[in-house]
Amino acid sequence: MEKTLKHRAKAFLLLCLLPALGGCLRSTRSVIQTHPPAQVLSSSLEDIVKATTQRYDHIQTLKASVEMSASTGGGKEGKVVDYASFTGYILMRKPGDFHFVGLAPAIRTRMVDMVTDGKTFTLVIPPISQATTGSNDAPGKETNKLKNLRPQFFTDSLLIRSAQPDEMVSLVSDDRIYQPDPTRKYVVDEPEYDLGIYRTVPNSTELKTQRVIHIGRSTLMPYQQDVYDEKGQLVTVVNYDDYKLFGEETFASKITIRRPIDGLTLRVTITQLALNAKLDDEQFEVPRIPATYKVEKLP
Fold it and tell me: So which residues are the signal peptide here (predicted)?
């Protein structure tokens, strides 16, 4: 009987101490508060695929004046090299014509000149008297990552292709937390849709991811695209920001293109944009390579 009373007394004492212990063991800290967007729009898989297809099909040509800056390196190299910003222009004409010219800062002479017909490309770098030719999918092996620029670096990024008839799609809901203005402590928690695009593997139930398009639900416009290669490796991550009205077309004015494998990042700001303007064949002529240039011919 005495032992039972002692056990009850200890249990009662412990119950009395729990509130005090809870107050001693608990702490509160402040975190940045997140805010919902002003509006959240809803859509279906069918409508998102349709809208993505319409945006891509509507644009047949693109002519843009741009400001660019580039960085190379990352965690693998243990350093990041930032290059001076420069201006240039981009010409695109479906199905495969592309022309990019980068101008040297201040003197505005041609620093990079790259042309492709959709199959083969020519890259000329006048400041170092070098040129590279090869197929569009030829791998870059230069230690100077800027020499590894390929047309797909731009064509996979500027226009977002929708799913092809032989590809499969999925739509999942998620959310992203981002800071619209780095100078303000205002963080948005925005619901999003992730449109996955896949190809089937012959004689298998396996699906290979081709691309994932991230769509913010405050506008139903893409804010990021992830591009994968045939092996399923993530090769390109593109961010789309600051959508503006160019004429009658809404287009992202700031595009950041990252190539994780290459350790290369390009930040593109579109200052002028003309869509569906007539572009002539001579605007896509292969640049002349002087006889004194060192020419590397890739497969």
Answer: 1-22
